[in-house]
Amino acid sequence: MISLIPDHILSAWNIYGNYAAILLMTAGILLVISYYLNLLITIDKKSRYDYINKNEIKCLWFSFLLFVIGATLLLNTLFFPTTWLWFAVRLFLSSMMTIIISVIVQNMLKFYFPFFIEKRLKKLRYSPRISADGNVMKLLSEEEEDVYLDEGMQAEENAYSVDYDVWIDEKTGVTKIEKYNGRLRALKCEKCNYQTLKVSKEEIIRPATLVEEGELIKFLICGYCGQKSRKSHKIAKLNPKVLSTD
Ligand SMILES: [Zn+2]
């Protein structure tokens, strides 16, 4: 009892499925190429940092998906003639394979890949900036930089997961201020060792005053093992000089 798929149905499936498969695979390849081309023409280090931070994992994931769905479809358009039974078996098995491979890739992108990205981001963040005059700029330390940050920036830096880096051209005094969001960056989880620990909430339990330091609690949660922890941070005393500017 072997019933063949009628020729006109199978050949239509093979032809149009083939087109769709090639379209999907090409879209996947183009997506990843356009990501890296865009990165290549982004020269400014801070812009590169933001671009990678925001797009890389997402982009790799979507291009992988497009490609692998296309490849699965392609595989299912190559057999001629075939029976309904073999068609169904092949479609089922190849879809299962695709799902398994996708889960593995997704986990790698989510839990292993961030280590690799973090390393590149660190390098981008701390490699010397060049001023418009062509001089190598110097990154100021946390203590030195306060003079260059306005009151709002300092408050943000003290209270939330925000970091400002101040670069100075020592010859001309020109500064460049870059803002980094610590909330987006994942830290290493002490339980599972993956780079998946993120700030879920921040709470000021005691605001800083002129005479006393304040306290901020960061609530952290691991995206991999779900480990929860909290960290206490001191908020620097308010600076009377900054407050009295008119
Ligand atoms: Zn963990």
Overview of the molecule:
The longest helix is centred in the middle third of the chain and has 43 residues, at 84-126. The strands form 2 sheets. The chain has a 3-stranded antiparallel sheet, with helices on one face. Strands 4-5-6 form a 3-stranded antiparallel sheet, with no helix packed on it. The protein has 3 domains: 7-126; 128-182, no CATH class; 186-246, Single Sheet (N-terminal domain of TfIIb). α1 packs antiparallel against α2 and α2 packs antiparallel against α3. A hairpin with a 5-residue loop joins β5 (214-222) and β6. It has 6 helices and 6 strands, in the order αααβααβββββα. With 246 residues, the protein is of the alpha+beta class. It starts with 6 loop residues before the first helix and ends with a helix. It is elongated and about 90 Å long. It binds zinc ion (ZN).
The percent of residues in helical segments reads 40-55%
Question: Quick one: biggest sheet?
Answer: 3 strands, antiparallel
Task: Please give the radius of gyration in angstroms.
Answer: 27 Å
The figure for the number of domains is 3
Bound compounds, each kind once, are: zinc ion
Series of secondary-structure elements, N-terminal to C-terminal:
HHHEHHEEEEEH
- Sheet/helix structural class: alpha+beta
Number of helices: 6
Distance between the termini: 92 Å
Low-confidence stretches: none
